[in-house]
Amino acid sequence: MKRRAFLKGVAAAGATALVPAGAVGTALTACAPRREAAEGWDFDEVVDRAGTWSIKYGRVTDGEIPMWIADMDFQTDPYVRAALQKRLDRDVLGYTSTPDAFVEAVAAWERQAHGYAPDKEWVGYAPGVITSINQAYLTFTEPGDKIIIQPPVYDHFRLYIERLGRMAVDNPLLFENGRYRMDFEGLEKLFDAKTKALVLCNPHNPIGLLWDRETLVKLAEICERHGVIVISDEIHGDLALYGRTHTPFCSVSEAAARVGLIFAGPTKAFNLAGLSGTAFCIIPDREKREKYLGALRNAKLDEASIPTIEAVLAAYRKDTAWLESLKRYIEGNIARVERFFADNELGIKPLRPEASFLVWLDCRALGLPQDELMDLFRTRAKIIPSNGASYGPGGEGFVRLNIGCPASVLDEALSRIRRALGE
Ligand SMILES: Cc1ncc(COP(=O)(O)O)c(C=O)c1O
Asked: For labelling alongside 172, which of 61, 211, 299, 385 has CA 20 to 30 A away?
């Protein structure tokens, strides 16, 4: 009831253009919640996702708490919901072109959020981050070519490299003294005539690391020397925590701008994962950009849907009050997890993420084979985390816990872990 009243307030507040001046090509600007409402985001509210075809909840069979796939259980950003509602109130959802406002909003957001100022011509619509990365494999590599990934890493990189008949080559991260870093020595040994691309996860899922400028500069230099492009997945970049900043790959050096292609979108930070196809690319190098955008056009993957356009314009606004509140809430949840494992000696160590709402739990001290570890969480604790082993070498003995949920749900999950491990 409270929520309905709030949304009515949103509609009554009328339209306010928050994207940069001149960025909104039509009258359909995002409509903004009133300022006073901005103080009251209720991330504590347990939102009922039943009947929404949620993939996360589809896996629940016996009252488990689902803490795996990377969407959050909070209400989607109310500015975006308001913009979508306003658009749906128009009578016609006809064929629509992607307005210039789309790339202008993305370029302005990169400047505002990450201090990166790409030319507008470098920015384009991209049909979802993974679909677009897959399209990059098809555009810049041939079947049988090698593509380097850095496990433990987001499993869909390997999955689609292999589905598309390319070969995933591992350059595992090094984990020393509780901190991950890239293995440049190992990387130098991997290149041969078949190696055409490296997929960078920036920030790195599942370990939550924000790569620093120095690392990215070095990576760009090595990849350029070996004639390899860098496909940088930056979908978690808007969720840099603790006041830190995300570093867009192509911003770090001229070499990075020559070899890099960035793919990102607002779907993680603003909780819009179900608006599939909502993403953008930034490709500074003209030849690569023309080749890539041409391939998207030929596959008819170059047209943004109405919800995507409205969502991008509404999410990438100047007012970041909602996003900042969300990040503080996530930091609070991380603190709960850290306190819990510090207070209870269970043999599990959380690695503090520097970005996003995914916590990498080091369970190696339990000494369990991976299937027993998963069974402990799923059958005994009745929570569903992501299986660390699914992220490739280095993931065994770990699980990834999605803590993008109300604190009360997180507390219940943690007490279930304590009970299960106490048994
Ligand atoms: C690193 C990373 N890239 C891409 C995606 C999915 O992006 P999209 O839904 O736009 O394909 C995810 C989702 O969890 C992710 O963690």
From this structure: 385
> 231 CB under 6 A from ligand 1?
no
Beta strand segments in 187-226, E:
195-201
Task: Please state the length of the chain.
Answer: 423
Query: Average pLDDT in the 143-170 region?
Result: 98
**How many CA atoms lie less than 13 Å away from 267 in the CB half-sphere?**
24
**Ligand 1 atom closest to Cα of residue 154:** 1
Q: 110 pairs with which residues across the strands?
A: none
Q: What angle do CA 28, 111, 203 make, to 5 degrees?
A: 105
Distance, in Å, from the CA atom of 247 to the CA atom of 352, rounded to the nearest integer, reads: 19
Taking only the tens place, the pLDDT of each residue in 24-48 is 233 333 344 444 344 568 999 999 9
Mutate to test the pocket of ligand 1, among 68, 233, 249 (most ligand atoms within 8 A of CB): 233
pLDDT of the residue at 39: 53
Query: For residue 268, what are the domain limits?
Result: 100-315
Q: Classify residue 377 as exposed, middle or buried by CB count within 10 Å of its CB (0-12, 13-18, 19+).
A: buried
Residue 333 resides in a domain: no
For the chain, the domain total comes to: 1
Can you tell me which residue has the tokens 């990450």? 114
Residues 210-227: pLDDT tens digits? Answer: 999 999 999 999 999 999
User: Which of 154, 157, 359 has most ligand 1 atoms within 8 Å of CB, for mutation?
Assistant: 154
| pLDDT confidence of residue 21 | 29
Question: Ligand 1: which residue has its CA nearest to atom 7?
Answer: 129
Spatial distance between the Cα atoms of 384 and 60, rounded to a whole number of angstroms: 8
Instruction: In whole angstroms, give the CA distance from residue 342 to residue 115.
Output: 36
The lowest-confidence range among 31-40, 99-108, 263-272 is 31-40
Q: Would 390 be classed as within a structural domain? A: no
CATH at residue 278: 3.40.640.10
Q: Is 233 in the pocket of ligand 1 (CB under 6 A)?
A: yes
Record the tokens describing residue 418, joined without a space. Answer: 């304590």
Phi-psi region of 291 (alpha: psi -120 to 50; beta: other; left: phi over 0): alpha
CA–CA separation, 146 vs 155, rounded Å? 17
Residue 205 Cβ inside 6 Å of ligand 1? The answer reads yes
Residue 133 tokens read as 């990365």
304 close to 98: Cβ distance less than 8 angstroms: yes
Instruction: Write the residue with the smallest CA distance to atom 13 of ligand 1.
Output: 70
Q: In sequence order, which residues have a C-beta less than 8 Å from that of residue 105 and are 6 or more positions away?
A: 19, 20, 23, 312, 313, 316
Query: What 8-state DSSP symbol labels residue 51?
Result: T
